[in-house]
Amino acid sequence: MNDFEHEVRNIMRENYWLVLSTANKKGVPHSVVMHASDGNMVYVLTGKETLKVRNILENKHVAVTIPFRKNFFTPDDKKNPAG
């Protein structure tokens, strides 16, 4: 596993939620917040009759966003907009 893969797996493991975005066959989007991952797999637990399932059956293309905060500035960085 390379450094990038390791970092992604850590982010997945440390963040307990994600945003799953789907679209129906007409391209109408739908996004939901869901419980996320164990670091190796993304799990989607849902009922058979939900909009997200109907959308996936119509259009297999989905997007998953796992939000995480990463501070790109060091505390002593004079350009840090946070202070």
Q: For the residues shown, what is the average pLDDT?
A: 83
Could you name the CATH homologous superfamily?
Electron Transport, Fmn-binding Protein, Chain A
Discrete helix count: 2
Strand numbers in spatial order across the main sheet: 2-1-3
Task: Please give the alpha-carbon distance between the first and last residues.
Answer: 37 Å
- Derived structural class: alpha+beta
Low-pLDDT stretches are none
Task: Please compute the radius of gyration using only Cα atoms.
Answer: 17 Å
CATH-derived topology: Pnp Oxidase, Chain A
Top CATH class: Mainly Beta
CATH architecture assignment name: Roll
Count of domains:
1
How would you sum up the major sheet? Answer: 3 strands, antiparallel
| Percentage of residues assigned to helices | 10-25%
Strand tally, please? 3
Explain what this protein looks like in three dimensions.
By secondary structure, the protein is of the alpha+beta class. The protein has helices at residues 3-14, 51-58, and strands at residues 17-23, 29-35, 63-65. Strands 2-1-3 form a three-stranded antiparallel β-sheet. The termini are far apart.
